[in-house]
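Q: For a teaching session next week I want to show students how multiple molecules come together into a single three-dimensional assembly. I've collected the sequence lines for a complex. Could you give me the predicted structure tokens for the whole thing so I can convert them for display?
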Amino acid sequence: MKTRVLMFGWEFPPHNSGGLGVACQGLTRAMAARGIEIVFVMPKKLDVHASWARFVFADTGVEARAVNSVLKPYVTGQVYARAMHDAAIYGASLLSEVRRYALLGGQIAKEEQFDVIYAHDWLSFGAGVEAKRVSGKPLIVHVHATEFDRCGGPSGVNKDVYDLEKEGMEAADRVIAVSQFTKDIIMRYYGIPEAKIKVVHNGIDETTEPTGAAGRLRLASLKASGYSIVLFLGRITLQKGPDYFLRAARSVLARDPKVVFLLSGSGDMERQMMDLAASLGISDRVLFTGFLTGADRHEVYAAADLFIMPSVSEPFGITALEAMKTGTPVLVSKQSGVAEAVTHALKADFWDVDEMTNMILGVIRHKGLKQSLSENGKREVSSITWEDAAGKVENVLQETLLSGVQ
Amino acid sequence: MKSVCFYFQVHQPYRVKKYRVFDIGNDAEYFNDRGEGNLNNRRIIQKVAQKSYIPTTKLLIELLHRHPEMRVSFSFSGVALEQLSQYAPEVIDLFKQLVDTGRVEILGETYYHSLAFFHSPSEFERQVAKHRETVRKMFGVWPRVFRNTELSYRNDLGEWADKAGYAGVLAEGWDPILGWRSPNYVYRPKGAQNARLLLKNYRLSDDVAFRFSSRDWSEWPLTAEKFAAWLGEAEGDVVNLFMDYETFGEHQWEDTGIFNFLEKLPEELAKNPGMNFRTPSEVIASYDVRDEVDMPNVVTWADTDRDLSAWAGNPMQRSAFEAIYELEDKILLANDLKLLEDWRRLQTSDHFYYMCTKWSNDGDVHAYFSPYESPYDAHIAYMNALSDLKLRLERAK
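A: Of course. Below is the structure for the complete assembly, covering every listed component.
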């Protein structure tokens, strides 16, 4: 008898702004391959396809109206409030949006047949909790990020978001954390007992690795003129440490002017980072590419001599795996989940600009280092798969079903 | 009669400190870490001296007095002797007492514990000569048997030792090379006239060096009585037990019973009238050659591959070797002793071993022996130091 999972998510490729959608895609596919039946619920109707899961949209059939929310899974309450102010026509607040999804989640739970409920991150937790209340089925919550990561630490944490996260984790029968790093945060700041939390690292495989042809961005000509390329790819927000990236860039450029630093992504600190690059006097060596997908994304990974993820607090960091898959050496902050999952990466504290400088120049100057990181990294990452992750998730599902609802 | 031949390796590298890109051009001291970590050479030397060298050597001196038939041999790297003289001189005094018994043989090697033989024959010869001179001055003896760094060996090393007048060379007794032959005989290196080849019995050596404290091992605990019985049962003329001296007290801690084991071993062996102790020179003088051994490719005593891949297996390691040896001519011409010394200290094999990525996925062996957070960190520090060395070389012109 197949295990049937009612899964609540928020985004799914190609309609995703970050790693959450990529993770949902990779994980659900690998779970389906293990014979798990998945109904994937999203808050509003989107044009998504995946042969391995059936999609249900919370808004369809309820009201003939798509929720044109500006809501993104990564914005904090404050940023959302600001965005809402700019876009008052949408008229809903973050929390009422989440509550609406929760109510619809309960309704869907009444209509669907399933054995276990599974919710990804706080925006879906409410729906998961409500589905559990309505159905009496066990709930697993999968934590891809916490409010502490998004805020880069305990200061500035939005109380409402925190409460929703905590409520979801407390109501859950099991909590899955994307790393030991995240598990520690969940225990420390949310008071969830260790025994209830299981670490499942993300994976990467052919469904989620970036592919495509190079060319549009014309990075090849930069390289041909003797420039090395150092890449930041992620949301340009406090959590991701773009400011540390730029400070390291200045320090590197003081010693080697033949380097170009790419900032790839969008986010609330984009403008601020442009100003910072200017005030550091390195604007001519820093390129802002905006948010990239598909072939463009593959092109920047492939062109880069080094990928840097200087996150202040990173639950996992799938982009580092994407870079490694492309054969690009990576430098990740020690404050990241991926740092505990891979060996063949350079690792530094996010605040240690000197050490990052040392490592960046090491990769640029020493071909042997670059080649070893590239070869070993590519080989290592080929064994970090969604299949593995799905196997661990399946164990959690079985445990949960055996021990029943708590 | 059958002999037991002990050889202990004493070596400590000058570990390169966390030398960063900012230090290039500003700091010509690469080996002077003074932190609390494992890059602090003084700290390591003093720790290993306390845990291993001092207690083991005291015990050996006592055993040599107690058992007039006992013999052992040592190889001391020059950089280890240098650092011991500086940071733990008591160890040098104890080593001298050992040698003064007349029953301890000292083997020849490269002063800098380098793999120069495979990169620069002329530099190799100079390092061997410097080592020989140091041993003569310190202990009043000439090495007559040679062992190359990491027990690395190839036919041309045997030929070299033969021409240089050594009585013999040590190497790993690796089955794929030996085939049906046993390591427990004296062999002749291919291409050599007078020199002999002594081969490590790695199974019995590793029973002590690696497996001694392993509770997963079916033979645990290993007693002196049991081990002496195994030695007695071994077929052949000689059982060559080659291992790191740090086996006693450092790799195998005191609480594993390793010192008691060592203390009991001579008396257990004495119970077998068919066995004696011999040093490598004595073994060569005592037994006839059984066969010629052909080793066209490098064989070492490292891990399961028994080749140089732990030192030169990845692009980082190969480019580091290339970078250090391409400086040779310029360094020699610069005629600057400090430059020459630093260049040579950077040739020590350990630096390259720390850059090994072979085992990084499951690698406890590697992690245990490396003072760096990762092989990549090791490479960066090394290459930065080398960049500074090049800068100094340019300035010295």
